[in-house]
Amino acid sequence: MIKRKSIKKSETWTAEKPYLVYDYVHIDSTAVLTIEKGARVYFHNKASMYVNGTVKANGSLKEPIIFQGDRLEQAYKNLPDQWSGIVLFSGSHNNIFNHTTIKNANIGLQVGTLEHEGFADVELSNARIQNMSYSCLYALKSNITAHNTLISNCGGYAVALLSGGHYTFYHTTIANFWGGIFDKSRNTPSLVVKNYQKATIKGETAVYMGDLKATFANSIVYGTLQQEVYLDSREECKFNYLFDHCILKVGQSFINSDNIKSFENVYTGAKYNPLFKDPTEEYNFELDTLSPAKDIGALKYANMFQLDILGNSRVDDKAPDLGAFERIENAKK
């Protein structure tokens, strides 16, 4: 059991036995926490992981790393808000979450903090961030690279990129079917991208701004709302974004003459429902055999990440699918 522990020297967590965190575990700026494949990290109610140093969570396809609440009964399997989440403070660098699942928290992974100088950075690969009461991935003036990653189902923003930063998402599935699962309303889009954020810190309210660049390629942003993407900016800072070979759930006027250069081979409208296998009961975001997301990705991005989140090749047929999952028909097996 770990309770209110600050890790000041680098250490390794193994898969030999699970780790149970009460209140918090803090990784000091002097330390690197290495988490080996197959490790299980359980968090008691309201518990958190705070990172000033570095976390390297390197799982594998067959032995992923799991971060979740400590209630293991069936009724809690997909219940959000069981613990607080993971926070990478600004100044935390070289973080890796590979073949890692983070689920059932309030904010699954917060990257960056407004009250600290500098920025945080993280690489997400073959990761699953799911079932959060507020946000799955909440980024503030940070640097994030994500590929082969599934971000799904939360009461607020699935992905929020705020106050500047540099973000790249390749073969990522961002899907929010919160209402259908938990019978609760949701009025915030799955994806919000802004180069500013208003916040109150130590009693003072201010608008925090920074240059922002975001790229989404061979990806899907979808959910139960009519508008699942929100973009906004302040003129004081740069605001550059690109959606390339993506399916987006947006309104008819979202892409217009003012921003059309930021959308290349983007597919919208009812006929581009990606047809996930079972997003509301089994949380299965693989593509159905009739999915329009099949075979419409750009090969140049697929060549960068030739295996999908399940280890399937997306380049064998020279026609990669959008999102984290490559559809493999039975005839190909």
What does this structure look like?
The protein has 333 residues and is mainly beta. It has one domain. The protein has two helices and 25 strands. It has helices at residues 178-182, 299-302, and strands at 2-7, 11-13, 19-27, 32-35, 40-43, 48-51, 54-58, 65-69, 85-88, 95-98, 100-103, 107-111, 121-125, 128-132, 135-154, 159-176, 191-194, 196-201, 204-209, 212-223, 229-232, 239-248, 263-267, 276-278, 284-287. The protein has a nine-stranded parallel β-barrel with strand order 3-5-8-11-14-15-12-9-6. A two-stranded antiparallel ribbon has the order 18-19. A two-stranded antiparallel ribbon has the order 24-25. A hairpin with a 5-residue loop joins strand 24 (276-278) and strand 25. The longest helix has 5 residues, at 178-182. The radius of gyration is 19 Å and the shape is globular.
Total beta strands:
25
User: Please, what is the oligomeric state?
Assistant: single chain
How many structural domains does the protein architecture include? 1
Rg calc: 19 Å
Cα separation of the termini: 44 Å
- The portion of residues forming beta strands comes to over 45%
What is the overall pLDDT average?
96
The H-and-E topology, N to C, reads as EEEEEEEEEEEEEEEEHEEEEEEEEEH
Strands in their spatial order, largest beta sheet: 3-5-8-11-14-15-12-9-6
Spans of at least 5 consecutive residues whose pLDDT stays below 50 are none
Question: What overall geometry do the principal axes of the alpha carbons give?
Answer: globular
Q: Which percent bin holds the helix content?
A: under 10%
For the largest beta-sheet, the strand count, sense and barrel status come to: 9 strands, parallel, barrel
Which structural class is indicated by helix and strand composition?
mainly beta
Number of DSSP helical runs: 2
